[in-house]
Amino acid sequence: MSIQYILEIVGTFAFAISGALAMKDQKHQDWFGASFTAFISSIGGGTLRDILLDSYPLVWISDITIIYAIMAGILVTFIFYKFLLNLRKTLFLFDTCGIALFTIVGTEKALNLGVRPEIAAIMGIFSAIMGGVIRDVMTNEIPIIYRKEVYATACFAGACCYLLLDNLGASRNVAFISASLLIIVIRILAVRYEWTVPRFFR
Amino acid sequence: MSIQYILEIVGTFAFAISGALAMKDQKHQDWFGASFTAFISSIGGGTLRDILLDSYPLVWISDITIIYAIMAGILVTFIFYKFLLNLRKTLFLFDTCGIALFTIVGTEKALNLGVRPEIAAIMGIFSAIMGGVIRDVMTNEIPIIYRKEVYATACFAGACCYLLLDNLGASRNVAFISASLLIIVIRILAVRYEWTVPRFFR
Amino acid sequence: MSIQYILEIVGTFAFAISGALAMKDQKHQDWFGASFTAFISSIGGGTLRDILLDSYPLVWISDITIIYAIMAGILVTFIFYKFLLNLRKTLFLFDTCGIALFTIVGTEKALNLGVRPEIAAIMGIFSAIMGGVIRDVMTNEIPIIYRKEVYATACFAGACCYLLLDNLGASRNVAFISASLLIIVIRILAVRYEWTVPRFFR
């Protein structure tokens, strides 16, 4: 079991928690709705990436551990949600680490399947954000990427950083860790100092 | 022509009717919108299942009868909709039989493609509900699974029942019929006695 | 480089512009959101068609020119949007030519993959309209097909015209140009004379 695999399972678990918690303020919420939302949030991005790249079987279909990680996330949310809601900062850090990890894993996977770097960056961003986008579309929210302005943009910067370092011949671990840290740092600074992406229409 | 094939065609026809009728209260509705909605409602769930499982060609692409069953459903809705709207109970029964059938057919198909039972259950539920979810997302409604509380949960119970009986060595017909009946009975009782799934956040 | 290839690139460019401009009236808009929306609008329809038909690799993954055409559309919108908003009639013409082209290219591609004419027509319509539908669903708008009534219907007429001429043994160019013109003419007349598709429920 590689460190990366453990991180991916932890990332899926964290995404399931944030997915289930997203149902908190919905008028209609029950066990099924919360579980479904947690599931979609966790696997949506990677699933879309793999469908676009024709990479089968899908990760969560061939590796049942993913499903159990999601179930654990749902259960933990159910039992500890009052506690979790007081941990907003910790959750934010978990979510940020999750999107950083998913971006780089997604970029790398696409690259290994032989696509061009531009496409690999798109796949990395999709892996990280599309689960949340699908969740928001399903619950009739404005998708996260239109709200939290420096969110997908941080993923974009991280994917570019990874591709650049990879191109410059950096070792895979150096590229992986640097790019992930870049995403985490950008998002923390963005929230701390209320950075926004420039408006498109002035 | 097996009984199951005939049932699937009837199920598709029923889903097309309920899809077209869903446009009744939309501000904007016309022939194209109603047909499109009927089509998406009927084939959405099975299509998503087959894409996730990489099972090609898609059923409605290789078997044109599906398309004609949907067209028939649209035409019947157009001609008889006033009559149909008075038949709410009959329609409810049709829809319930439809989701029961689609759940078990979906579970079985996934199982035959060699996935684990947990994944097969997810695929069964997706087959039954995702057409309605996609329809609701497209028409800006809160998806059905967040509203009708014991809807997807009935499908879940039916899929588990099928997998259990299959595992215990029951004949395929016994498993199929028992699991379908379970879904139908749960949904009828749920509507009759206003059962709800327990809230996730208390 | 065939004329059709150049037209497809121009069509993608035009769709990217109309996708980015669709963010104009959104409360939340920034560089990332506008670029993402332009991207989804341009490639959504063709991507869905290719996934449904299991036709891989996806066009924009194997041909990077598509990505650059989209980027050019985003940049042109950013620089010239005030000018573009005064060009509503020109943009309408561009968009109409875009959907005409995408409909016929999509129908033809499906036909070449060996599906039945009915399915090819559905694929042609999907190629033209689903990018806009996905964009509208993501930005919480009522999808375009429910609003602009003679929009998808024009695509449907064009696809049928192409299939009919093809069946009658017309040369491919004759069928292509006639069917495209039919879509363009229907849409222009529909907007000019406020044609609407008959209501489904009277």
TrEMBL record, chains A, B, C:
Glycine transporter domain sequence ranges: 6-81, 93-166
Annotated membrane topology: Multi-pass membrane protein
Subcellular location: Cell membrane
Pfam families from the UniProt entry: Gly_transporter (PF03458)
The entry's keywords: Cell membrane, Membrane, Transmembrane, Transmembrane helix
Similarity field: Belongs to the UPF0126 family.
Annotated PANTHER family: INNER MEMBRANE PROTEIN, UPF0126 INNER MEMBRANE PROTEIN YADS-RELATED
Name of the molecule in the record: Trimeric intracellular cation channel family protein
Species name: Dyadobacter luteus
